[in-house]
Design goal:
Elements lengths: L1 H12 L6 E10 L11 E2 L1 E14 L4 E6 L8 E4 L13 H12 L8 E7 L9 H16 L6 H16 L6 H8 L4 E6 L5 E5 L5 E7 L7 H20 L12 H7 L6 H26 L2 H17 L6 H12 L3 E7 L6 E7 L3 H16 L4 E4 L7 E3 L3
Helix pairs in contact: 2-3, 2-4, 3-4, 3-5, 4-5, 6-8, 8-9, 10-11
The chain binds alpha-D-galactopyranose.
Main location: cytoplasm
Function: Catalyzes the transfer of the gamma-phosphate of ATP to D-galactose to form alpha-D-galactose-1-phosphate (Gal-1-P).
Protein name: Galactokinase
Length: 390
């Protein structure tokens, strides 16, 4: 990969001395969906798929960026004195947002770069290619100029850049999983306190299989913000009688006893999902410790049904892919993963059945939807970093 990147760099910007290489993964969430911005728990992990960068320093204030994934877009250029969101800069707004965030926080960016990006995360599949490129730019700036910035601060900066510079009101899960990922581990993150613990995914004989619906995500951003608003309205109703700061503060039993406080029926279902899903994420991490795989399968099923019926962020394609997986004899559990409205599912599959699973689930999905799914056996990797002799 690095040799290839070097070649692309040379053909785009010419041969340069002292190239440095960086990598940031994509992420997949095992469970705990739409809980991050509700002060709940998530249980994601970093993938070995991700985004690579080859970087050469410049001695002026110019940043030139090229992505091998968007060849037709050509080289994007900006000046460090004038970093602004520009629609025509398209993908390059993500790294620009992180540069801007550094500057806003008083971390100087003394000179520019020539950078080539190249990634192997499928675009728009909900595996966080955007958070990946944000963290990638973050580690570049950290490594060259600001080693005092720790990984958690980078994560927060990347999320803030996405919220304010890009204008997508996401929670912290994606940036956290990508910044803090650890090989063979998922992480149980409390999104309210940012306390976290790694959980070894020590499931011998089992594989994590990601399946991409290849359904283009539609309306995802606006519906995402609507869900946030609905949860917030439900919280305000609950706060009339309960001393809580987020939906992550309530246990399912307390929610059931008080859900009548929520006036609007839709908002009540949204909040129910957030509360129960938070509980499922905590329980799943616990079940991994106990090696209680069957229980994990049930929790994944409940999670999907709740996202389908109460949170309403699945779509026929996600449902078909999950239903087909549930019927396969080699499956422990399966659910949609990420924001929803398209994107991917995650399944736990017995090793010996992986090929058969891909074949049969893929065929059935195609029969039902006319779409061809892509499958990846997930490999859980490290977080964003400079590649030195790797
Ligand atoms: C997107 C957001 C995350 C999270 C998930 C849903 O990936 O970026 O912050 O809210 O959706 O769990």
């Amino acid at each position: 990969m690095l040799e290839e990147l070097k070649g692309i760099f040379a053909s785009v910007f010419g041969e340069k001395e002292g190239l440095r290489f960086f990598f940031a993964p994509g992420r997949v969430n095992l469970i705990g969906e739409h809980t991050d911005y509700n002060g709940g728990h998530v249980f994601p992990c970093a993938l070995t798929m991700g985004t690579y960068a080859a970087v050469a320093e410049r001695n002026d204030g110019v940043v030139r960026m090229y992505s091998d994934n968007f060849k037709d877009a050509g080289i994007k250029e900006c000046s460090l004195d004038d970093i602004r969101y520009q629609k025509e800069d398209d993908w390059a707004n993500y790294p620009k947002g992180v540069i801007y965030e550094f500057q806003q926080r008083g971390y100087s960016v003394p000179h520019g770069f020539d950078i080539v990006f190249s990634g192997n995360i499928p675009n728009g599949a909900g595996l966080s290619s955007s958070a990946s490129i944000e963290l990638l730019m973050g580690v570049v700036l950290q490594s060259y100029f600001h080693p005092e910035v720790d990984a958690l601060e980078l994560v927060k900066m990347a999320q803030h850049a996405e919220n304010t510079f890009i204008g997508v009101n996401c929670g912290i899960m994606d940036q956290f999983a990508i910044g803090m990922g650890k090989k063979h581990h998922a992480m149980l993150l409390n999104c309210d306190t940012l306390d976290y613990e790694y959980s070894k995914l020590d499931v011998s004989g089992l594989a994590l299989v990601i399946a991409n619906t290849n359904k283009k995500r539609t309306l995802a951003d606006s519906s995402y913000n609507t869900r946030r608003q609905e949860c917030n309205d439900a919280l305000l109703d609950l706060q009339k009688a309960l001393d809580i700061v987020s939906l992550g503060d309530i246990k399912p039993s307390d929610f059931d006893a008080n859900s009548g406080l929520i006036q609007n029926e839709t908002n009540r279902r949204r909040a129910k999902h957030a509360v129960y899903e938070n509980h499922r994420a905590i329980k799943t991490a616990h079940m991994f410790k106990e090696n209680n795989i069957d229980e994990i399968g049930l929790l994944m099923k409940e999670s999907h049904l709740s996202l389908k019926d109460d949170y309403e962020v699945t779509c026929p394609e996600l449902d078909e892919l999950v239903f087909a997986a549930w019927e396969h004899e080699g499956v422990i559990g399966s659910r949609m993963t990420g924001a929803g409205f398209g994107g991917c599912t995650i399944s736990i599959v017995k090793d010996a059945f992986v090929d058969d699973f891909i074949q049969k689930v893929g065929d059935r999905y195609q029969e039902k939807t006319g779409l061809k799914a892509d499958f990846y056996v997930a490999d859980i990797g490290e977080g964003a970093r400079e590649l030195k002799g790797e």
